[in-house]
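INFO batch 0412 | record 1 of 1 | parsing
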Amino acid sequence: MNTIDELHSKAMDIADDAFIARRKGKLEQAKQLSKEALEYEKQAALLLINEFEIEPTRSVLFRSAGWLAFNAEEYKVAEEMIAYALKGLPPFEIKEELDELSKAINLVLKNFPIVENFVIPEVHPYFFGDSNFFAANDENYKFAMVA
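INFO prediction complete | emitting tokens
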């Protein structure tokens, strides 16, 4: 069985690779690496889900998992990680960072609302009769965007 430290360390190593990929403009690779790192960090955090006396470690792991989920475009998971973190007694600084994460999620979702199973056969600006509207038709992008 992996320990919390081992899981966290593995997550951070992969997150570093994701950061490097993002800086090189390899956004899809960065997203995939963030998803991989998320799985390790989430496992570590969930091992402390009911260990409320282990703060700030508990909330730091959930905050970290939340940001990894955000970078992986897993917004519902990010919101779950925030909720888990706030069930404990995170320090003020961690609460502020969780609030920043929540704001970032809301900003993305406000500008690019996710619609479950939204698929359009082709991408055309005129598809909906609005020249400012276009839809992404790709398995990775199941949302509508307003330009």
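INFO post-check: Residues 4-23 form the longest helix (20 residues).
INFO record closed
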